[in-house]
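Quality-control log, excerpt.
Job 1 of 2 completed; input and output follow.
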Amino acid sequence: SLQRAEVCAYFHRFEEAEKMYVDADRKDLAIDLWRRTGDWFRVINLLRTSASGDDSLMQLAWTKIGEYYAERNKWAKASQYFAQAKNYGSLAECYYMLEDYAGLQNLVSLVPEGTELLETIGSMFTTVGITESAVNCYLKSGNIKAAIDTCVLLNEWDQAVTLAEEHSFQQIEGLLTKYASHLLESKKEIEAIELYRKANKHTEAAQLLSKLAETAAKEHGNPMLAKKLYVLSALEVEKFRKKMFDMPDKEGGTRTAAQTLDTLMQHDNATVNSRILETSWKGAEAYHFWLLAQRQLYQGKVGDAMYTAIALQKYEEYLDPEDIYRLMALTAYHNHYYGQCSKAFIRLENLPGLSDEAKKGYSKLALSIFTNHAPKDPSNDLNRKRTTDDYICIASGR
């Protein structure tokens, strides 16, 4: 009967040959027959009814059927058979083609650590921008560099820097600096600031914001924008300080006095190297009071405008001194504080860098004013109450 079965198989009468093998109690030969012909569905049917199933052969059959459906782009069907075969590599490809990223994430937990498949899955997550899952795959595979590169590629610089610090990967600082320099050379200051913010480089972000604030005020004549940029710079400074003082002990214990002192010294070094860290709030104050004085003047609150204009003397470092004293002279004149008006004109006539023509114009205007009005204030309360160290009300300027 076995010989007749072979003859039937030779003439492609496979079903007859299978029946003869089964009747002769040789299912193994029937399985081998269908295996040679590539009919893996028949192989599975025979394996299921076989007393001693071959697990490895069953997995191979599931895989072959999965490949059959995958070749015809029936990914959902193929994934079912690859899952039964525990063929995680092919199953990952099915999930990727189906855009089933939740299934792909669940698959990662089944893949052993250190296997190459984890890097393949990581690259799949990278191509679709799922940073966290990609990083987890690379970390599980032991490829720290690939995890950091993924963060850099997807512009997740904060996570890249954190990983670099945890795993002593020093190259990230150089890469970050190089990329920031490229952005600055391309006149992409906003992108560079966002880069530093994402990398938790608060001091660098604060410096760039302050430079933008100076440019906005001096070159573009936009004091409101300058104020907002100074506020953003100051907030970055506050984040830097909070980060410095909230830094826990490396061993997880309570910070000692020596560690606290070391933090204070680091903070002092940072503020010495960058004046911006100490002056961002003052820059915001300067433009706030400048805008407040202008608003008060146009609202007819001449007295309040004068007090605010006088307060601006503390901010010559940020504002144009000529603008400060012109505003001070104007508001003091309309408020009949000719003493303050006279002081403003004296400063205007002695400003360094001012052209001779401008100085003559101020002198001529001062002469016409003080010929008719003595340079005296109606009250001495202003000089008695206001000192350079006084706190100034943000709302009123007094």
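Job 2 of 2 completed; input and output follow.
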Amino acid sequence: MLVGMRVCSRRVSSLRACATTASVSSKVAAPTQQPRKRKQHGPLQKQIPVTPNALAQFIKYRRDLFVNMPRPVELDADAKAMGVEVTPAYVSRLAAIQCDVLASEHVGVQPDETLDVIFRHRVLLLQSRKGYRTTSDAMLLTCRAAELWNEVHGDDASPNIVVDVCAGSGVVGIGLGLRYAKSDVLALELQSQFAERCHRNAILNGLAKRMEVVNGNASEVDLSHHLGSVDLLVCNPPYMQVDDYSTRDPQSEERALAKRETAATIDDFLRLTKSLLHPTRGIALFVYPQKRRDRMNDALDRVGGFHSIRWTDVHRGGISYHKPSATVIVAVSVGDILAKAAPDVCTDRLMHPVGSEDVTKYTPWIEDFFSSIGLHVSP
């Protein structure tokens, strides 16, 4: 069992929040959004000052919305016919855990942070206000990793351990940890402020006993006790070379380290992956910009040692498959398990339904993952 966090061990004891009653309520309730309008980031919005009262109001609203909602067995036929919404018991259990942690002194929301609600309100995420924030790439990587794992090993199987490389605030590792309740999670993150926040996010989402956070360089950290034993590895790596100025330079050191290969290259991440994966069961997935696909392919050739490589082009627009893909997810295995279970070398996925301009609607492979979060959390 994995417990706690290495290197970064500062305990945050103050409870602070940043939202008004109106903003808390509006961000937790089911979103109503105009097509293609940029949405705000969670219940604790960037522009709202931090107040302890706001966090208490947020906790109360979340309990009312998810914990105290009626159960299916409590609704009569008329209520069901009218479409009265119900909260599955497993969602209520997870929300209760999150509210209890927020109300305790184990996790605090800092003045330079926001508290975001993601994955269809299942997961709470502390993030930096002005530094690097998670993008949809993390969501796509999480959903595709779960989908491919289930295709290869079956819905009832759980990875022995999930390793999240370049974990950031912990979105991918936490999402998979909540999907696979029997799995331990190891998150590896270079930046100390991200690692500390990832640790608190793990506690916030009930993974304190199953998720370990290691603060260190992927090319230097000692993971010898995990060599050849990892079933599922995910990575959202930096994709810009140090001397690459083809795009706008990141505006902060935090963003620069997240996007530029200043500490480790894609070759380093692939070599680490090859050493950690279980020879017969293990699969790993990387998310990468489509326009840099050739660079990923060249790195795979240089590093070598992967028996199977599978590419998934994710089309974001939802208009049609003809719109160019912005993101590619590459899956690799050192054994032949991918070749047997996923014979297609290249596949396509849509982020939003065909013809839809509503950015709050996702296709089934994403919605299915959202629905599975917390399903196996023990009462």
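Post-run check on job 2. The CA atoms of residues 273 and 284 lie 7 Å apart.
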